[in-house]
Amino acid sequence: MPSLQLVADLPGHTEPAWCVAWNPARSLLASCSTDRTVRLYSYSNTSSAAADPTKVSSTTTSTEPDAASAFPERGTRSLAWSSRRWSRRSISGRFGASLGVWEEVDEDAEEEDEGEEGVYRPHRGCGHDHGHGHGHDQAHHHEDDEDEDGDVLMGGVVAKKEWECVTTLEGHESECKSVGWSPDGNLLASCSRDKSVWVWEVQPDSDFECIAVMMEHSQDVKTLSWHPKEEILASASYDSHIHLLWDDPDGDWCNFQKLHPKLPASALTIPSSATSVIAELKPSEAERKADEALDVPPLEEDETVWALAWSPCGRFLASGGDLGGVRLWERTGHNPDSPVAERIHTAAHSRSCFALSWISGGLPESEGGLGLLASGGGDGKIIIWQVVRPVASSSSAEAGVSATETKTEANTETPTESAATVRMYPVAAVREAHGVSDVNSLSWCPRGEGKGKGLLASCGDDGTVRVWRVVRD
Fold first, then answer.
1. CB proximity list for 133: less than 8 A, separation 6 or greater
2. What H or E segment, with its residue span, contains residue 381?
3. What is the pLDDT of residues 315-347, one digit of tens each?
4. Using CA atoms, how far apart are residues 189 and 182, in angstroms rounded to an integer?
5. Strands, E, within 291-435: which ranges?
6. Side-by-side strand order, sheet with 439-444
7. pLDDT (0 to 100) of residue 119
8. What is the structure's pLDDT at 207?
9. In sequence order, which residues have a C-beta less than 8 Å from that of residue 40 and are 6 or more positions away?
10. What is the dihedral of CA 55, 61, 67, 72, to 10 degrees?
11. Per CATH, the architecture of 2-106+161-472 is what?
């Protein structure tokens, strides 16, 4: 069975780290924190990309943008990179209600090769000479090189570059909780404690126009997530609802469906052969005693929805909330505004589920594979789930759950019959991913083979950023 291997432990933040995000086109990972800094980390594969990607070793080094100290007093709550085309642009959502759009400053930057849009190629005459091997630069930087994306490596570390806040977007009345770019990078969305969701359109010269302000939620809006292929936006709130938003062809941006979690949690089942998963997820004796001693009244109100993640194919949406479970929703038609139905609710974490990230991988699509879903929560655990859609010849899909199963403590009520359209089971897990701290954010690297695919980043209240990889025994 697979296991979750720690690839890099990246201390740096002095206060809780809230969000991690991989650049979609370059070897960069970003994190943000209450400590008023956004940190950038570089990475590279040291083994042949032709090897099994789950066994390729990684080295991760860090750089800090010179502009980091320019962040507001209350720090940064969320961040996101734009699409491949604009991979030198990022957005940060601040505790102080405003948004900052940041771009890398380099007068010699060149966008080369139309087939690799967004890949930055440094000026080859700046910093070192590759052609003739002479001059002052060669004497002082003979070990310099370029990584596969063209970023200048100074003795193996990506050279520090200047980042500039080119635009500040204002409008929210309180803390901005989440930000995100549409798949093509032409739209930006933000949500806030002021119960609103804003959509901005990118204009020339780093300008932005607000094209929609939606006040449909009755409480804080905790998170949002763009559909991977369409201009559909999902938002989740303290009001226990998920809203699906789109630009109505006959009107303006609006909420076309309101989702309310209802299914009871089904018991988490683990293959008896998955001893490593059982060891990580089964409550220890100390945890059992602590839970017994802690008298927590049952949740009387509907659960807050903390996390959202779309499946790579765009047909499914995952959500996580106060109850600690993971819910899967499915679009029932082929139109953008087709109804979305709740399919399953699986017991997962013993505390709130704060983070979700979904990427293709694991079981092949031909065998019903829908990708790997990562979840993290207040119990300090990270769980990797294989999501599958049962197929006619489902022997391979069912191989993840054997006839003899080990069940953890959970609600044993069974979901509705619709659950047969999709299922999920844990394939790897780790407890105390950030010590005794909550896991606040998870992010799978969206890049291809040999460029970081299979890497999972996490951050927590302990201020650290950690990078993981699923490896097979």
1. none
2. none
3. 999 999 999 999 999 999 989 899 999 999 999
4. 8
5. 305-310, 316-321, 326-331, 340-346, 353-359, 369-377, 382-388, 405-407, 423-430
6. 2-10, 465-472, 455-460, 439-444
7. 32
8. 87
9. 28, 29, 30, 62, 63, 64, 65
10. 70
11. 7 Propeller (2.130)
pLDDT at 232: 96
Residue 70 CB neighbours (<10 A)? 15
Report pLDDT digits (tens) over 166-225.
888 998 998 899 999 999 989 999 999 999 999 999 988 878 999 999 999 999 999 999
Q: Is the pTM of this model over 0.85?
A: no
Residue 89: both structure tokens together: 């642009």
State how far the Cα of 319 lies from the Cα of 354, in Å rounded to an integer.
9
Of residues 332, 447, 312, 465, the one with CA closest to residue 387: 312
Give CA–CA dist 296/277, Å, rounded: 27
Taking the domains of the chain in order of start, what are their residue ranges? Answer: 2-106+161-472, 114-152
CA distances from 264 to 133, 239, 288, 309, 408 (A): 67, 18, 23, 20, 16
Query: Residue 164: which H helix or E strand, with range?
Result: strand 162-169
Residues of the chain below pLDDT 50: 46-72, 110-146, 150, 152-158, 393-419
